[in-house]
Amino acid sequence: MSANAAPIPLERFAEAIAELPLENLRAKAAELRNSITHLMSSNQQLQEYANDGDRDCADAIRENEEVIERMEMRINLLRTEVEQRGFRWGADEPATVNGKPGEATDHDGMDIEGPPTLDTDVSTQSARTTGGTLGDEELTRRLREQMDDHMHDDGDGVHL
Fold first, then answer.
1. How high is the pLDDT of residue 160?
2. SS3 145
3. Dihedral pair phi/psi, residue 80, rounded to 5°
4. How far apart are CA 83 and CA 80, in angstroms?
5. Helix, strand or coil for residue 82?
């Protein structure tokens, strides 16, 4: 961003992320966390010179802190968007991939789980029913849609 460009207002950022797919929200949060890490590292390097009276370094540290604050607000907006969609977001929760604990998280420790999905592999069905909240009607509707999709795949019905 150039020195003259103003950051996008938080309200516009919230509007922009409302239509993004879940994986894009995760990617944006990881990107912001990575930027924050680099800014914090820069601040640590600049601090010695700022302590010795270098005003430019002190100003750069203050500017970086403002940018970090804005980035953290954006991460909070991303979190709110994910949670409003009925998914879970939290670095304090165990990492899961297809319901198996401890396999992976992205760079900021974020684990997002959603509503259960219908899977024809019996071994993964019970593992994929964690996280998210759906009402009875929404769950029934989604299951029927998925069952209809599976029923029409080959026309032979359900194979056990």
1. 44
2. helix
3. -60, -45
4. 5
5. helix
Instruction: Classify residue 100 as left (phi > 0), alpha (psi -120 to 50) or beta.
Output: beta
The model's pLDDT over 84-136, given as tens digits with 9 standing for 90+, comes to 988 888 653 333 333 333 333 343 444 444 443 434 343 333 333 444 566 77
Alpha helices in 2-96 (DSSP H): 10-17, 22-51, 55-84
Determine contact, residues 124/152, Cβ cutoff 8 Å: no
Residue whose C-alpha is closest to residue 146's, from 124, 123, 125, 117: 117
| pLDDT for 158 beyond 60 | no
> Can you tell me the distance from the alpha carbon of 35 to that of 108, in angstroms, rounded to the nearest whole number?
11
Tokens 């990492």 label which residue? 95
55-84 and 10-17 are packed helices; what angle lies between their axes, rounded to 10 degrees? 40
pTM over 0.70: no
